[in-house]
Amino acid sequence: MATKSMIIIGAGLAGLSTGCYAQMNGYRSHIFEHHTVPGGVAACWKRKGYLIDGGIHFLMGHRPGQPIYDLYCELGIAQANRFLDMTLYGRFIDEAGGRSVEITQDLDRLAHDLKALSPDDSQAIDELIAGARAMQDLDMSKTGMASPPELMGPLGQLKQMWGIRRALRYFAGKYARSAADYAQGLRDPWLRQVIENLFLPEVPVWFILMLLGLLAKRQMELIEGGCLNFVLPIERRYKDLGGQVTYKATVEEILVENDRAVGVRLADGSRHRADIVVSAADGYSTIFKMLGGRYVDKKIENRYKNWKLIRPMVMVSFGVAREFPGEPWLSFITLERPFTVGSQTIDGLMLRLFNYSPRFAPPGKTVVQVAFETEWDFWNELRKDRPRYDAEKERVAAEVLERLEAHYPGLSSQVEMTDVATPYTTWRYTRNHRGAYMGWLPTPEVITTRMKRTLPGLANFYMAGQWVLPGGGVPPCLYSGRHVVQILCHQDGKPFLTSVP
Ligand SMILES: Cc1cc2nc3c(=O)[nH]c(=O)nc-3n(C[C@H](O)[C@H](O)[C@H](O)COP(=O)(O)OP(=O)(O)OC[C@H]3O[C@@H](n4cnc5c(N)ncnc54)[C@H](O)[C@@H]3O)c2cc1C
Description:
The protein is α/β, with parallel strands linked by helices. It has three domains: 5-42 and 66-76 and 227-307 and 441-491, FAD/NAD(P)-binding domain (3-Layer(bba) Sandwich); 103-217, no CATH class; 313-430. The chain is 34% helix and 22% strand. It has helices spanning 13-24, 67-74, 77-80, 107-117, 122-135, 154-163, 179-183, 189-196, 205-216, 227-240, 283-290, 298-306, 376-382, 386-405, 423-430, 444-447, 474-491; strands spanning 5-9, 28-32, 44-47, 50-53, 59-60, 83-85, 88-94, 99-104, 220-223, 244-246, 251-257, 260-266, 271-273, 276-279, 313-320, 330-341, 344-353, 366-373, 415-421, 461-463. Strands 8-7-16-17-18-15-19 form a seven-stranded mixed β-sheet. It has a five-stranded parallel β-sheet with strand order 10-2-1-14-20, covered by helices on one side. Strands 5-9-6 form a three-stranded antiparallel β-sheet. It starts with a strand and ends in a 10-residue tail after the last helix. Bound molecules: flavin-adenine dinucleotide. The site of flavin-adenine dinucleotide (FAD) has 36 residues, from helix 1 and helix 17.
């Protein structure tokens, strides 16, 4: 059989993964990427001697023996990265109440500290800790992300249920409700906030239990070199396998003949043909722009009309001539003095200190990063007036710095670099719809929806990435590229390979 050619749109994690598995399995692939570098939302950039990591916070499943670890090995990630065990998920600070609590990997200590915070919620806290313990041995690949829905028959689903049988009850009933909904039953208002904001208020409780369980099992880690270090080895592996990638190449149209994808047209007008086209780019622009909305059914229409997106973020990074020994790498601060951005009141900040590795700043210095949720429309309108957009970024950075000063006196005078990224920045560099950096908002309903990697009525076309795996995340996106090639091998009647024969 002649080797089939494949065009992949996007060199984010999903596109690179698709490319690697395509090359391993004898497809000749070429990635076209909009940006000048690989990684998509897993992005790092340099400013005045500092390295800003604007992507991946933590990973899961980096230890040998876990299928996710095997995935990292297949893609050349495990060999090229140093992962640092997370012993602390983060610290929550309530400025007005003068309280704080650390979410540690020691579940006994966590139970004790949460009960000290709110003795009246002891029963609920015991329940949550029991759930986290039940999740400790969960093999995450058994939660459905390891195989494409197209290839999972009833037997596959049974196997999946069997794989998670010890924690099965925590995927149903009250644990399948959103964290926000569940937290309503807690007596202490601040404990409510802590539970809601452990990830996002909309995620199901089981997702939070899973995080706490993996943390306790030391299966959560930070990337010592930042997320670009995570991405570059995959790009290297792809090229070593013979893959081709072109940067600054934005796909405007997916070429279709007789309901078969046959290639792409780039923004520079050039046309490129292939036997197979895979989009690992933003879902909305793929379906409604590059394909003109011609290959949708009711389900897809409903999703793009009614499902909520991850709320976009403003990310303010400071390079400061200061060290933060012993300080947690992540803190969630409930502000005593909120501030306004657009029509929203910002009453909480996520603070990330890159004090765990010397890779981000010169000796004696640190990158301090603050993120908060914001509105797409506000920033998208503002950016049409560049001076006002820049002035607003400056104002926001000043507001943030003033709030940080209360925690780290003298910080303002130590700032050497300031960088503000808005939802428009996310769109500009990654094209994710309305700045939704992780795609769909992972509500209990959405996160459990299994989406096909194909579109109705269109042959030779596949999708990978966070827009077909609700909730996104590193392992799911990497798996999604693998899925596409698994489906292709299945259709072509050949075994799926995870290395070069
Ligand atoms: C701040 C932040 C923190 C995160 N933290 C974590 C975490 O702790 N743990 C975790 O597991 N996950 C985390 N994630 C999520 C995870 O990084 C993403 O879900 C994942 O990287 C998405 O990969 P992707 O390939 O699907 O999409 P993307 O990264 O969006 O890649 C799509 C690529 O397609 C390109 N593209 C788009 N349109 C076109 C076009 N028309 N032509 C050519 N190319 C195009 C884009 O430029 C981009 O490179 C985080 C994300 C962010 C932003």
